[in-house]
Write a structure and sequence with these properties.
Elements: H1 18-28, H2 47-53, H3 57-71, H4 75-86, H5 93-100, H6 106-118, H7 128-137
């Protein structure tokens, strides 16, 4: 199994396009271009489609498993996962986690995770980054 630690060194998260979002997600998930499917290397398809194919499923699974295993027993994250899963008419916390990594939430969720991983004992429901995720979800 590949070692993974959440990248708390990525402090400022900003994106205004889907291309920039996908590049950020690849960085956060530590994706290896060698593991991208062949379609991502096809020069005959348009740039947008090629960029969409550039996704390392194994790296994404490792990163999301790490985050979930590290946070699943924390009531604050349980609440976030429930609220996010409800957006997809689900109660599955892993669905909630997936939603929080999507375009609409990654900027605030990443900051929340950084704050949690840097100081778990100081992370509370009053932590501003946690409040920002809650506000975005409601």
């Amino acid at each position: 199994m590949t070692e993974y630690t959440y990248p708390v060194n990525i402090i400022h998260v900003e994106y205004a396009t889907t291309t920039a979002y996908r590049e950020l997600l690849r960085t956060i998930f530590n994706m290896n271009p060698e593991n991208f499917p062949e379609e991502s290397k096809d020069e005959e398809i348009d740039d947008e489609s090629r960029d969409e194919f550039a996704y390392d499923e194994a790296a994404a699974a490792i990163a999301m498993d790490y985050v979930f295993q590290s946070t699943q027993d924390n009531p604050l994250f349980q609440k976030l996962y429930q609220l996010a899963a409800n957006k997809m008419l689900s109660e599955d916390p892993s669905i909630g986690l997936s939603i929080l990594f999507c375009y609409d939430y990654l900027d605030v969720f990443h900051k929340c995770l950084v704050d949690y991983f840097q100081s778990p004992s100081e992370f509370t429901d009053a932590t501003p980054s946690y409040q920002n995720v809650l506000q975005r979800l409601t």
